[in-house]
From TrEMBL:
One Gene Ontology term, aspect cellular component: plasma membrane
Record flagged with keyword NAD: no
Keywords recorded for this protein, A-Z: Cell membrane, Magnesium, Membrane, Metal-binding, Transferase, Transmembrane, Transmembrane helix
Membrane topology: Multi-pass membrane protein
Alphabetized GO MF terms: metal ion binding; phosphotransferase activity, for other substituted phosphate groups
Identification of the protein by name: Undecaprenyl-phosphate alpha-N-acetylglucosaminyl 1-phosphate transferase
Stored PANTHER family: PHOSPHO-N-ACETYLMURAMOYL-PENTAPEPTIDE-TRANSFERASE, UNDECAPRENYL-PHOSPHATE ALPHA-N-ACETYLGLUCOSAMINYL 1-PHOSPHATE TRANSFERASE
Keyword Transmembrane set for record: yes
Biological-process GO terms, alphabetical: cell wall macromolecule biosynthetic process; cell wall organization; lipopolysaccharide biosynthetic process
Localisation: Cell membrane
Signal peptide positions (record): none
Lineage, opening ranks: Bacteria, Bacillati, Actinomycetota, Actinomycetes, Pseudonocardiales
Cofactor(s) in the UniProt record: Mg(2+)
């Protein structure tokens, strides 16, 4: 990994914010055109028994989000500092190409409803493109072998398999959680913002290590795209992101995590700080706790009934919140709260005292649990 000269070792926070804002504006403006296109070609979600919307809704919102990502990347390529993310790494190019493939697969699914094996093939192809561009794991931390763990150096095949598995898992996790207006876009925004904050913190510690530029850039553009799409998608939604959007979010989160965790200069981070080494994983694992748990519960539930793990039902966590008595908006905001508490607590572990963060995390989780249970408590009192 290269380092910028001392005079250039700055934190390009303003540039990251500008890139995120550009991605948000481009996405916001493109949604109207994509909405018209979706109606014209028939990419429309008609209400089904397991759905919560009651009228036909255009899909394919991920196409607008991908346009926002491209807009943010194009601007970053022209900025004086963030251009280094392209000069020293192929990771941004990998995301643009791989993202294009996953969005194409998602658009086809939004229009023609592809079968699960075809979608899985498309997901593996998009993840494989990331690997072909060199975006894969190089090291993996394990909690044994030394006083505070050790780093395993992965060969090309091992790193490729781990990268593809992570990408496919995250793609399907985000796809599974996309069930309420604004839910996937909000969780994607929280995940990307937390990951970007962590990478900027690493950049500060490494005094301008350009290896930290690509993951933060990927996360910033994704955060902007989610932010720009959210006004159109929050309840009552005027468009759905569809599989083209949810799978793009999952792929880009996997790319940002792989870029951050697999290519960081661990020596400069301090090998004794285990939490620092694991923070990229903690950020994404924490923020994806809800969709990953949702994915696991859905697979177990469907398998026990003798059904395909990819079959649809109305038993997801967000459906359960609706059954408890929460409105759509409140259910989505509650999941935002859970995801935000977990994600930013994981980031805070690398910056603040562990005891303070654990106490704050506990208070935040208790608050989230209490607010989630309010309808049940009211019913019990009655």
């Amino acid at each position: 990994m290269g380092q910028l000269p001392a005079s250039s070792a700055v934190l390009p926070v303003r540039e990251y914010l500008l890139v995120a804002l550009t991605a948000a504006v481009v996405t916001f403006l493109l949604v109207g055109l994509v909405r018209l296109l979706a109606f014209r070609i028939g990419a429309v979600a008609y209400p089904r028994q397991r759905d919560v919307h009651v009228k036909p809704m255009p899909r394919m919102g991920g196409l607008a989000m991908y346009g926002g990502v491209l807009g943010g990347m194009l601007l970053a390529h022209q900025l004086p500092v963030l251009r280094s993310a392209f000069d020293f790494s192929n990771d941004p190019y990998a995301v643009m190409v791989g993202g294009g493939v996953i969005v194409l697969v998602g658009v086809l699914d939004d229009r023609f409803e592809l079968d699960s094996l075809t979608k899985l093939a498309g997901q593996v192809t998009a993840a494989g493109i990331l690997v072909l561009f060199g975006l894969q794991w190089l090291f993996f931390w394990v909690p044994w072998g030394a006083d505070k763990g050790a780093l395993l150096a992965l060969d090309q095949n091992q790193g490729a398999v781990l990268s593809v598995l992570l990408a496919v898992t995250m793609i399907n996790a985000m796809n599974f959680v996309d069930g309420l207006d604004g839910l996937a876009a909000g969780i994607g925004l929280i995940a990307a913002a937390a990951t970007c904050a962590f990478c900027i913190g690493v950049l500060a510690k490494n005094q301008g290590d350009v290896g930290s530029y690509p993951p933060a850039l990927i996360a910033a553009t994704l955060a902007g795209a989610c932010l720009g799409f959210l006004p159109h998608n929050f309840n009552p939604a005027r468009i759905f992101m569809g599989d083209s959007g949810s799978m793009l979010i999952g792929l880009m989160l996997a790319a940002a995590t792989t870029s951050a965790s697999g290519k960081l200069n661990y020596d400069s981070l301090g090998a004794t700080d285990v939490l620092g080494l694991l923070s990229p994983l903690l950020v994404v694992a924490a923020v994806l706790f809800v969709p990953l748990l949702d994915l696991l519960m859905a697979v177990v539930r469907r398998t026990r009934r003798g059904e395909s793990p990819f079959s649809a039902d109305k038993m997801h966590l967000h459906h359960r919140l609706l059954e408890i008595g929460h409105s759509q908006r409140r259910a989505v905001l509650l999941i935002y709260l859970w995801a935000g508490v977990l994600a930013f607590s994981a980031v805070a572990l690398t910056v603040f005292d562990v005891v303070v963060v654990v106490w704050c995390l506990g208070i935040g989780l208790l608050l989230a649990f209490f607010v989630s249970a309010v309808p049940r408590l009211r019913e019990a009192r009655r």
